[in-house]
Amino acid sequence: MANYRKRDTDGPNSEDKALDLFAEMIIEKLETIGKDWKKPWFTEGALQWPRNLSGREYNGMNALMLMLHCEKEGYTIPRFCTFDYVQRLNKPGKDDEELPRVSVLKGEKSFPVMLTTFTCIHKETKEKIKYDDYKNLSNDEREQYNVYPKMQVFRVFNVAQTNLKEARPDLWEKLEKENGRPFVHESEMFSFEPVDRMIRDNLWICPINVKHQDDAYYSISKNEIIVPEKVQFKSGESFYCTLFHEMGHSTGAESVLDRFKPTSFGSKEYSKEELVAELCGALTAQRYGMTKHIKEDSCPYLKSWLDNLKESPQYIKTVLMDVKKASSMITQKIDQIARDIEIEKNEKQEQKEAPKKKMYYASVAYLQMSDDTRLLEELKDKGDYNGLLALAKEYYDGNGMDEQYTYSSPLQNRGDDLLIEDQNFAVVYNGNVSGTYDIMLKYTEEEVRNHIRRYGIGRASSDVKEVAKTMVAEEFAEITQKKTPAFEMPNGEVLYINYNRGKDTLDVGSATNSGLAVRHSFEYNHDKSLDDNLTEVNEKLENMEEYCEAEEMERGGFRR
């Protein structure tokens, strides 16, 4: 390694020592790449993202250094812990059996990680509060405090530097399974769905334009990223890694992290920006199981990076802080999109597995030419249907379902056009007679059934009445499975009953080989239960002369 000039101070503090070490490690990595620039930033498929033993991920700056540390020392499990955490593993609970002590192996040296802490002091009372409590204050309350950031250095050990494998074999086995080699895509044109959606739906902080040309760059003046098409790269992985580099640049825009101005491109100062983008791209690629090689356009900056690092290790502090902020922006956005995709897939799977719910539409506001529909018309003409739906919802007065105007389809009249609907509302427009708007509230079939049970169908629409008929048919079929319902008449004759859904009647007659020979039909009363309807039919039959005998004979009754 080339000679490295450390700062000349009487007593470097822990932060200075950590930065000295970080600078040495980055220099060593850059010199290795300088000898063979086709080597990747991190060994292909070697490590997952570093975390502590509690499972919390380290941020971009610390993650970068811990991965380099793991590679240098040969650690295969990128999990770390402080000395205090190791000691806490030896504190048993009340009912826990005593386990072998966990300890750091003799002679092992810790590695620094740098965390920013905040001291919050009240401007008048000088009272200190925790930063978590400060974040929960209102904006006015926060104005009463001064907040002082401070970089603190904590020392950590890799789990391989402890006897965890022998003292806690179950935990060690779990860590080995969790931290196996990440899957590296070997297909030349594999797709990374979260980033593909980011490009397609313009979800990044600036447009990403994929064009058939030869350059990949971020334009400050136009605030856009230009990259060649994926098929122009040797692999899909190369496409995404190049894009991560340019996305790193885009975070430096004045309206975002404000790292550079337009004049800095091509200047000496831009050498640092190129290093930030390179490290940011390498970190992001590593997080998602890809291998990032140094961008060929960045190779001319290698000497400048090395010179700056050897001259002033403080240089690495500003670089790493910028990398931390930039890579966090990128990974947070990608992770958010990945979560959204996973939620969508789960919802689609649930919809696929569960029977599709039948929806009904209840008119809650019908706006005609006599009503002021001007604002609705303006939104419709603009094509702003989301705005139209939001405005239409304001016409709903909060009343429940009106069964008279509840239908299985939102389209009831010739010329009806469903403009837009969401989970709860729909807006139907009819251009005839100066235009009308029907705002409809959506109900599931179960909600319609509950409404029928409570209010009946005295004034219901034909669609609601069909639901009521289905309910009776299902209930009648349920009792039929147990035993065919029948009436035993006073004269001893047995009459069988069937519900005729088409006619909405209870049919009564005698059983034959070809089915029920119907003698009588009684209109079904949906304002009463099935048992009440059967009881009424039984009473009517008993009063018919043809089924009566002498008064002293025992009267018949309904039986199932």
Written overview of the protein:
The protein is an alpha+beta fold and 560 residues long. It has four domains: 126 residues, no CATH class; 147 residues, no CATH class; 97 residues, no CATH class; 77 residues, no CATH class. The chain contains 17 helices and 18 strands. A hairpin with a 2-residue loop joins strand 16 and strand 17. The protein is elongated and about 115 Å long. The N terminus and C terminus are likely disordered. InterPro entries: ArdC_N (IPR013610), MPTase-PolyVal (IPR041459). It comes from Phocaeicola coprophilus DSM 18228 = JCM 13818. This is DUF1738 domain-containing protein.
How big a fraction of the residues is strand?
15-25%
Strand-pairing-aware structural class: alpha+beta
Shape: elongated
* Mean pLDDT over all positions: 82
Distance between termini? 96 Å
Task: Indicate the multimeric state.
Answer: single chain
Question: Which bin fits the share of residues in helices?
Answer: 25-40%
Number of strands: 18
Let me know the largest β-sheet.
Answer: 5 strands, mixed
Question: How do the strands of the widest beta sheet line up side by side?
Answer: 1-2-5-3-4
Low-confidence stretches: 1-11, 182-188, 551-560
User: Roughly how many Å is the radius of gyration?
Assistant: 37 Å
- Compute the number of structural domains: 4
List key phrases describing it.
560 residues, alpha+beta, 4 domains, 5-stranded mixed beta sheet, 5-stranded antiparallel beta sheet, 19% strand, disordered C terminus, DUF1738 domain-containing protein, ArdC_N, single-stranded DNA binding, MPTase-PolyVal
